[in-house]
Structures are given as structure tokens and as C-alpha cells.
Specification:
Length: 196
């Protein structure tokens, strides 16, 4: 009988949990009352771990099964708008536009990366002290923010908010406007996460 990779992973997880239950139960029981209590506690912990793993096998299998790939929709070249690339970047990356929002945790991770990179760029554009950030560091953070915002897995709603935040931070004049744009971006990332 050949097991699927998901079933094998669950079997290995079950084995590790049961063995940890045996070791933990034996140690705990031995400390409380000696050998007999240690053996009884080891058997009880192993049984509990095994039964719990058996009852949760369907949830674990669903968790380990990969998500279906999103369907791609072709867009004419004239409809694609490339994201701006900073002038200080010596090696611009090719930019691809996401047509539909990516599925699953991948899009959430990209959206979170956009939020973090824009927050670090905002901190460099509006430093707390007058000479707290050098021009090289500011340019490096700007380049990273633009690259991450141009990622093809970025959901469209987050992409629009990120573009507005980049524009507000790039101007570097009004810290309140940049803060409001960053707040709108964080809400867009949160809304994308909760709509799944």
C-alpha cells in the first residue's frame, strides 16, 4: 500500500507526538511517583497523543494539501501599466502586473512585505533626528520599497494603496499625508486578509 505524501507527513507527525508523549509522560510520572507511575503516565500520554492525532487527521490533511493555483487571465500589453522604478536603482527588475488577486497565504505575505518595506522607507524619509538616515540608506530603502511594490503576486487593492503611499512618502514634504497613506495601506492589507 502506497501512502500519499500528505498521509506520510501526518504519520511522521503522529509518531513524533506519540514518542514525545511517552518520554514526557514517563519523566513526569517517574518524578511524581516512581517507576509504576512513570509507566502508567507514559502509556496515558502516548494514548492521548495517538487519539488526538487520529481525530485531527482530516484537519491536518487539509492544512498540508496545497492550495489550487489561481487561473491566469491574459491582459493586452497596452493595458499593463509598469510600476515606477527609482532612478537610483542601477539594476531595475522587470515588472509584471497581477491581473487577479493571488490565492492563499502567498498574497498575504507579499502584502505584509509591502507594508514593512514602505514603513522602513517612510522611517528613512521622515527620520526622528535631523541626520539620522544617510542618503545612501534612504535610496536603498526606496529601491527595496519599489521592488516589493512591483511584485506580481500583490493583490490589486493593496497595489493601489501602495502606489499612493509611495507617492506620499516620495514627496517627503508632508509627514501627516504620508502617515495617512500608510494607514490606508495597512487597512488595505488588513481588508485583503479578512476577505479570504
Amino acid at each position: 500500500m502506497t501512502l500519499s505524501p500528505v498521509a506520510r507527513i501526518h504519520l511522521m507527525i503522529t509518531f513524533v507526538l506519540v514518542m514525545c508523549g511517552v518520554a514526557g509522560g514517563a519523566c513526569f510520572g517517574w518524578l511524581l511517583g516512581g517507576r509504576v507511575t512513570g509507566v502508567l503516565a507514559a502509556v496515558a500520554a502516548a494514548l492521548g497523543a495517538g487519539i488526538g492525532s487520529f481525530l485531527s487527521r482530516r484537519h491536518v490533511a487539509d492544512f498540508l494539501r496545497p492550495a489550487p493555483a489561481p487561473e491566469a487571465v491574459s491582459v493586452p500589453v497596452s493595458a499593463q501599466a509598469p510600476a515606477p522604478v527609482p532612478a537610483s536603482d542601477p539594476h531595475p527588475l522587470p515588472v509584471a502586473v497581477a491581473v487577479s488577486d493571488a490565492v492563499g497565504g502567498y498574497a498575504e505575505g507579499v502584502a505584509d512585505a509591502v507594508l514593512v518595506s514602505l514603513a522602513t522607507y517612510q522611517a528613512a524619509a521622515f527620520p526622528l533626528t535631523a541626520f539620522g538616515v544617510s542618503e545612501e540608506e534612504r535610496d536603498a530603502r526606496r529601491g527595496v520599497a519599489y521592488r516589493v511594490c512591483a511584485h506580481e503576486g500583490l493583490p490589486q487593492s493593496v497595489r493601489v494603496s501602495a502606489a499612493a503611499a509611495l507617492e506620499a512618502v516620495d514627496q517627503g514634504v508632508d509627514a501627516g499625508r504620508a502617515h495617512a497613506a500608510m494607514k490606508a495601506l495597512s487597512l488595505a492589507v488588513y481588508d485583503h486578509r479578512t476577505t479570504r
